[in-house]
Structures
1.
Amino acid sequence: QNGVARPKGYTVSWHYNPSVENHHFGQTHPMKPWRLTLTKSLVLSYGMHQAMDSYVSRAATKEELAEFHKDEYVDFLSVATPQNIYEMYPELATGTLGYSSHIFGVGDDCPIFDGLFEFCSTYTGASIDAARKLCAKQSDIAINWSGGLHHAKKGEASGFCYVNDIVLAILQLLRYHSRVLYIDIDVHHGDGVEQAFWSTDRVMCVSFHKYDKEVFFPGTGPLESTGPIHPDNPGKNYTINVPLNDGIDDESYDYLFRNVIDPAIKIFHPTAIVLQCGADSLGHDRLGCFNLNIRGHGACVSFVKSYGIPLLVVGGGGYTPRNVARAWAHETSILIGADRTLDPALPEHMPHRDAFRKEGFTLFPNLGGWRRENLNSRADIEKIIRHVREQLAGIRG
Ligand code: TV7
Ligand code: CA
Ligand code: ZN
């Protein structure tokens, strides 16, 4: 098959349980587990599983979830069903919108669906397993495309995220690693992870995102939000936010990414990195507003990998399923070192091949084609780089 040889001097593990594909947020909800089915189909059809250790991940236990989440919230998630939710919380039944209230963040974005707890514990189990493989030095790179649900808070669901698998994975890494760098290229701000590690200097959180307060979810993550302001708080300056406007293209994103991540790594010296690869930053995403191509998105993964630091890679958002699958398959090939040998023409024989018909069965369709104008000027980009440099200068010594 497509030239994916195993001996390469480092070990990549792929953590996945196909049972996540059986769960549905609702007919019109943008979060479609189908994107994971398509990703798996590409990874297997290209033969990339042969270059990785594949693990069928187990479900995380309630005790494991409670290492970050509140007990009452974990209990709630473990018992709530579409059938009993209105009985338990009659307040949720508020007429036409279905339920929209503030009970553990449940609402239209985060509905209670059948098998919700199994879904949450399964994607989280994969991230925890992946982190443990890195801690045990049994993997150099560990991948969980079903994880990356960065908005979940201690005691509530938010933005399609119920359990914060990233926070739980980082907590595992912190048992063996002194410093963890978190990088988030989802088009949305990684607010849940940022909040969880706001006051520590052992985790540096960097999120690139569309920022338009009050208009674009979740409305947090301005450039000036860099950690606690109190000079005695260890977390001061350990949060980096990169707020962007619509339409950013491959070239400016790549330039910005390198000029933020390189100094962050050189000053922070992480012993492990967690990379959230939300694919809603691609052009033509149903919810996103950037113009990145599959290669532009993947360039971030290549760049992070090039430092050779133990790496946990998770998925995240991504609402045009076929392009999510293209991006994560391409990024898998980068992580196993097979991106140069992979045929851009999709395999002739693969399940669900027809899903890729629209763009002509290629791994690299043109997604950057100016659907939106790039509203990020060179001056905007330079301002961000300057701000980050000054911020990082404040954490030395
Ligand atoms: C990581 N945008 C998650 C990103 C979470 C974004 C939002 C929707 C949306 C929800 C739906 C739906 C939708 C077409 C899009 C202020 C609101 C507006 C709910 C309708 N269609 C990630 C969360 C964001 C739900 N939420 O980072 C059911 O879009 O903007 C909001 C909040 C209130 C709630 N309403 C939307 O990528 C995984 N939601 C259709 C059906
Ligand atoms: Ca982000
Ligand atoms: Zn997102």
2.
Amino acid sequence: SKKKENAQVISQERIAQGIYSMWIKTEAAAEAKPGQFISMYTNDGSKLLPRPISICEIDKENGSLRVVYRVTGENTGTEEFSRLNAGDTIPVIGPLGNGFPTEKAAGKRVFLMGGGIGVPPILELAKQMECEKKQIVVGYRDAETFLREEFEQNGEVYISTEDGSVGTKGNVMDAIRENTLEADIIYACGPTPMLRAIKSYAEENGIECYISLEERMACGIGACLACVCQSKEKDHHSNVHNKRICKDGPVFLSTEVEI
Ligand code: FES
């Protein structure tokens, strides 16, 4: 298993209400892939379990990673992360998880779909993806469409907002319908209701679909079992095998898991 390392904060900024972007210098950058995450520890000894945070961008040349995360409340680990400044250190483990199988997209029309705090991992995925048609479909609550400019540099961008202030009013599925978009393969990350809708759309239309269940993780290191989900795999006694999202995922072929 991976070792804990003290990463150094390069920069940090608030990019939307409650959403922070931080670049850190870390050995984890060397082997990181899109869809993987790192687990970040607080320096406060009372919170022993780390927080899994998805990787938003990878800069191998400078040995650094960008994480974009939501502060989940007062006195939380994520709030502590948001107060770090350039030069501070933060204990991290990573990269963790399997990541998205980018190679499956070759020659295909692709949907890269992200919703809410599932938007950030879609950026590195979009940057690395080589495919026939790259359609980035991202959903937000309101006009604070963080990372939008970066997406626009990396593909065709379609936006949905819950309040209708930007793009399609509704969710990412509404944006696909409104723009009559089509794909041969889907990669998605976001809250469970969004992934459930994408999974059934993909299955109804026979589209290969990879979903990241990272929002359901708690510790990210296999210690809390909060992330167990039912898989469709059965052993030779027909027993269903449960999967730990943080260890076996967070990315799964949509037909492999019940959500
Ligand atoms: Fe804690 Fe998977 S998130 S065991």
